[in-house]
Amino acid sequence: TATAGAACGVVTASPVDDRVVFILGPDRPTAEWSYGPARRQGAIVHTATPGEWEPLDARDLVAPFTAGALRGGSHVHVFSPDGRLVSFTYEDALLPDAARPGTERNLRAVGVSVCGLPVTVPATHPRNHSGTAASVLVTALDDEPTPGSDRIVRACEEAWNARSSDPAAPVAFSSWRSKFEPPAPPPPEPLPRDDAEGMLRRLLESNDPAHVNTRYLLAVMLERKRILRPQPSVEKGFLVYEHARTGETFLIIDPALSLADLVAVQEEVSALLAGLSAPPPAPIDSESLPGDSEPSVEDSEGEAAVASAS
């Protein structure tokens, strides 16, 4: 039971012997030094002598400070599996809680006390005390960590909870927990880029008379790309094509377009392709129209842009 107005709690037992460690608040607390994150310490009791306790971590609040002593309060004390170390969370009594220009801010950290290495602290402050273990902080904190980096602004929880239950497994030094920032949702999937062949197939399937001219121009484009091969036609007013890869037959109505009609038809194709991110067709010359002359055998790289819509 704590005395002189001190409070205690959060008990953790050693896995190898009769020690228990717990949080102990300040004795004879005052308005300036009452229980708080930076004003508490670890204390150890042996179950064989329950009326006696010893300080775990030492505290030194006056510069130049004592190696192995803390400047604030420890909390959540947990023994390592072999009982040699005690981890704790820590907050500093001298650093400000709020950010100040040119001053490091007090942030919750994780430290480790090495049992059996006593630290003696001079009585230069009424809240200084010695301890039975040397303590050190093991986390590097950043007042303003870059989002997505491995820098941390707060460390907490037990330091040994990542140890495997397999005794032959390597001993984990620490576990890692960070604030989860969900990734930004991917941009909406754009409409799939269409091609002349896909559009021609859909227009043939719909068989809409309003697209007779468009189907004709798309067939010409595919002929120039050597995707469709012209075949002899036995019926006047129709063009017959064979697909070069699949062998399918395409029957296209020949609207007998004049050169002057091509501009309007190209605008119709451009309107259909506009929402599908496909480039609008460029003008084609009348020599490429079936029935006017032999199909061009010019290399596709030199063809008009109308053929590149596929």
Comma- or semicolon-separated keywords:
310 residues, alpha+beta, four-stranded antiparallel sheet, rod-shaped
Describe it.
With 310 residues, the chain is of the alpha+beta class. Helix content is 12%, strand content 22%. The chain has helices at residues 196-206, 212-224, 262-274, and strands at residues 8-13, 19-24, 41-46, 54-55, 72-79, 85-92, 109-119, 131-137, 228-231, 238-243, 249-253. The strands form 3 sheets. It has a 4-stranded antiparallel sheet, with no helix packed on it. Strands 5-6-7-8 form a 4-stranded antiparallel sheet, with no helix packed on it. Strands 9-10-11 form a 3-stranded antiparallel sheet, covered by helices on one side. A hairpin with a 7-residue loop joins β3 and β4 (54-55).
SSE topology:
Elements: E1 8-13, E2 19-24, E3 41-46, E4 54-55, E5 72-79, E6 85-92, E7 109-119, E8 131-137, H1 196-206, H2 212-224, E9 228-231, E10 238-243, E11 249-253, H3 262-274
Antiparallel strand pairs: 1-2, 2-3, 3-4, 5-6, 6-7, 7-8, 9-10, 10-11
Helix pairs in contact: 1-2, 2-3
Radius of gyration over all CA atoms, rounded: 41 Å
* Helical segment count: 3
Tell me the series of helices and strands, N- to C-terminal.
EEEEEEEEHHEEEH
The major sheet is characterized as:
4 strands, antiparallel
> Could you tell me the mean pLDDT?
77
| Widest sheet: strand ordering | 1-2-3-4
Helix percentage range:
10-25%
Name the structural class.
Answer: alpha+beta
Shape: rod-shaped
Termini separation comes to 85 Å
Q: How much of the sequence is in beta strands? A: 15-25%
Q: How many beta-strand runs?
A: 11
pLDDT < 50 runs, ≥5 residues: 189-193, 276-283, 291-310
